[in-house]
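Design review, sub-item: ligand-bound model
Attendees: FS, YL, KQ
YL presented the inputs for the zinc ion complex:
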Amino acid sequence: MNGDKLKIKPGNKPEYRIGIDLGGTKAEVILLAKEGQECFRKRVATPVNTKNNYKSVLETIHTLVNQALSVVPPTDDYTIGVGIPGTMDKNTGMVQHANTTWLAGHYFKSDLEKKLEKEILMDNDANCFTLAEAVGGAATGYKIVFGIIMGTGCGGGLCIDGTIHSGNHGIAGEWGHFSIDPKGEKCFCGNVGCIDTVLSGPGMARSYKKKTGKDLPAEQIVNKARNNDQECMQIFDRFLDDFGKSVGGLISILDPDAIVIGGGLSNIPELYTTGIRKVKKYAYHQNVRTPVLKNFLGDSAGVFGAAWLGCDTGQALK
Ligand SMILES: [Zn+2]
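KQ shared the predicted structure:
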């Protein structure tokens, strides 16, 4: 079950909140006290290439939780929230469509609950990002917030009134897997031409390779475009145009109060200038005012969002 089913009622505020942000390369834990103070934080490498990655990750999270608990008095209550790089089927709890492929097909939440001997909250990492930015980050104060991740892949999340809206199937906000190019690349999700294949770092690099036959990472493509390299300029212009189409379309459908962008590509300043002009061009309104914001919490959004899963987020920072 997704975290929103276990929303903590006001007045039932835990003494401590443990948040785990599980990524493809790192796993991080944070321990927050009742008033939001950070009491413990640690980041380790996510076990990969082990005999059994899944089992190793369960062990790693168990160890991180125990380390965080070492500073919690035994009589105090606590919650555990976990953000994962994948979506869970809302009815069965099985992980599906995980970028971290060894997680797919597992009942990760229930396996972790058995290991930790405690009920936990679990949600998609993009949802955790959106929750954190909506509650204590760049989009604080906005009612309907859509979070976009543009990094090694494209994810998204929707937060309404400080609570994650996970949708009928648990896929609300999966903006990255909307197909915008029927002749595009095959996506890991099985679809073709998803936003994920176009507006991610590897997507930009793939477009460049298709055009030139050469390998160049996204960061260098953007740099060379700024220095008037014609091929890079064409790739980058197309990228910003696709960004405009994708985000403009999103605004036309959802009309959120704010959009916040995270992930490595969120550091590209042109997204907030030319990119926003393109968004305005493609959205179904002549004077789009939706703020398109750069994240505030950076790398920390995932772990804060995980810690705040299921809590009355109005209380999170008080
Ligand atoms: Zn896809």
